[in-house]
Amino acid sequence: MYEQALQRRRKEFGAADPRTAQAARDLGLFLAGIGDPAAARPALAEAVRIDEQAFGAAALQTLADVTELAAVSPPTASEPLWRRATAAQDPGIAIRAWMALGALRSTAGRRAGAAACYRKALARQEEAAGKDSPAIPAVLQALAEVVETRDAIPLLQRALIVGRATQGPHHPSNALIEAALSAKLLAAGRTDDALRAAADALTIDQETLGIDHPRTARVMTALARVLQAQQQIERAESMYRLALSIDENAYGRAHPETRTDVRTLAKFLRDTGRPLEAAELEKGAAAR
């Protein structure tokens, strides 16, 4: 349907008409939405070319389409597109571009470069909507993942304050923040604070998502790590095993998330002097 509409627009209005660009945009976004980025790229590239001719290289519509093209492009092709979009006057476009650049650089192990991008995104977000807007926590979380632990903790604490104020204290997004905060506090040796954060996150996820939700399982694993660090071995093991059980039921035994749980539990068993149990667990998982 979308391909036919594009063909009709080309025939009726020509290859350089904004109405043709709209049809190309619709096709590209549809293909991206169904998980076919390779097929989406030519259509979105066509929309960008028409935009540039009709509106100019720096126009709002042009840069909006540049971001959509970047989103379906491989990293080497997407990075210059995202950089281009950071110049947009529209804060939504610019923030999205800075966040995407940060993610690319984080994935490539360029933590300092990623942090610089996330700080740019944070500045634009604060300028556009204020320092306590609902979008602030997500930017702070991303930044916290690429800076040193001592710098990450206050970022996540701020994210949690804003998240509670804008979403309410028991919103699932706050559980994500508290789980991340717990990991940083644990890395800093603040196990009591880490335990409180992980326990709060687990309570929120159990209340809002349910005890059998995979995200609840991830928080259980985070809590288990803190309990293990505090030498609460029985409680830690219970959490690790419950997380594994939840993911087995949710994903199946062969899913990567479940296999990660198996490796995590096996490591725990070895760390606590039970190598034979660990080997038996891994053997059973491999045979499934």
* SSE series: HHHHHHHHHHHHHHH
Give the overall average pLDDT. 96
- Provide the CATH top-level class of the largest domain: Mainly Alpha
Shape descriptor reads: globular
- Range of strand content: under 5%
The domain tally reads: 3
Structural class: mainly alpha
Major sheet attributes:
none
CATH architecture of the largest domain: Alpha Horseshoe
Fraction in helix: over 70%
Count of helical regions: 15
Q: Give the CA-CA distance, first to last residue.
A: 44 Å
Radius of gyration: 23 Å
CATH homologous superfamily (4th level) name of the largest domain: Tetratricopeptide repeat domain
What are the low-pLDDT stretches, counting only 5+ consecutive residues below 50? none
Q: What's the CATH topology name of the largest domain?
A: Serine Threonine Protein Phosphatase 5, Tetratricopeptide repeat
